[in-house]
């Protein structure tokens, strides 16, 4: 990571919320490519074959402790941060409580901010780094019943672009990946009718595999993406059409 034009070497990677779903696919993709990977998780044990540290991204002290523990496992500062941890609390606007709105923003948006802020310390010193924020097509496209989630995911775009303008001269990039519908446990529970409705709006005619999102994240973390920063990369089969 110290020289973007140099041959690719194993990176020190931290994936928040890397114990399931898209986060797990991302973590495994980095690990299988030979990178040094640590994930964060709130409870339980890390997935088999991956090292993990406990972290509550809504608490700055917990984030700092998690980074410190991860850096001890990695043997060096975090070079690639993938801020993936997120929650949903869906309901219609008129029924949404302040608590439900605040909780989602605190995890999805402020949590990413806390992690990026902590990661930037080592990246600034090294004059190199990759910050990749996992958003959603919903953040750009909107969705009924998800005003809190959409707002939190849209906010990541402003966060990444402000980081780019602030730290771009120090060899640090910040980008956003916006997945659409992905084949996960959650989409696997959809009724056939609901699944057919969603598929009808996707030009590609299918949901994405988690590995397809992971491949884009790995590209943005690699040397070939050294001149890409402040970008939003949709992985949605054409659903959002870049909105």
Automatic annotation (TrEMBL):
Q: Where is the Ketoreductase domain?
A: 11-185
UniProt keywords, alphabetically: Oxidoreductase
GO process terms (BP): fatty acid elongation
Q: Keyword Oxidoreductase: yes or no?
A: yes
Indicate the family of this protein: Belongs to the short-chain dehydrogenases/reductases (SDR) family.
* GO terms assigned for molecular function: oxidoreductase activity, acting on the CH-OH group of donors, NAD or NADP as acceptor
- The organism is Serinicoccus chungangensis
Protein name as it appears in the record:
Beta-ketoacyl-ACP reductase
The organism's taxonomic lineage, starting at the top: Bacteria, Bacillati, Actinomycetota, Actinomycetes, Micrococcales
Q: Which InterPro entries match?
A: KR_dom, NAD(P)-bd_dom_sf, SDR_fam
Please list the coiled coil stretches: none
């Amino acid at each position: 990571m110290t020289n973007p034009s140099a041959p690719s070497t194993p990176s020190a990677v931290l994936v928040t919320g890397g114990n399931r779903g898209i986060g797990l696919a991302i973590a495994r993709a980095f690990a299988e490519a030979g990178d040094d990977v640590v994930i964060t998780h709130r409870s339980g044990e890390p997935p088999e074959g991956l090292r993990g540290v406990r972290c509550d991204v809504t608490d700055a002290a917990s984030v700092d402790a998690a980074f410190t523990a991860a850096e001890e496992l990695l043997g060096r500062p975090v070079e690639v941060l993938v801020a993936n941890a997120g929650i949903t609390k869906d309901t219609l606007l008129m029924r949404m409580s302040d608590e439900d709105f605040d909780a989602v923003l605190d995890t999805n948006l402020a949590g990413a901010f806390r992690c990026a802020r902590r990661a930037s310390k080592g990246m600034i010193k090294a004059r190199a780094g990759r910050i990749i924020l996992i958003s959603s097509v919903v953040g750009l496209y909107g969705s009924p019943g998800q005003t809190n989630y959409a707002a939190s995911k849209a906010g990541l775009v402003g966060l990444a672009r402000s980081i780019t303008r602030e730290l771009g001269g120090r060899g640090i990039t910040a980008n956003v990946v916006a997945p659409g519908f992905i084949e996960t446990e959650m989409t696997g529970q959809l009724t056939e009718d609901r699944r057919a409705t969603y598929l009808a709006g996707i030009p590609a005619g299918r949901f994405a595999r988690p590995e397809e999102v992971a491949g884009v994240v790995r590209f943005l973390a690699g040397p070939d993406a050294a001149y890409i920063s402040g970008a939003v990369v949709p992985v949605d089969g054409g659903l959002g059409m870049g909105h």
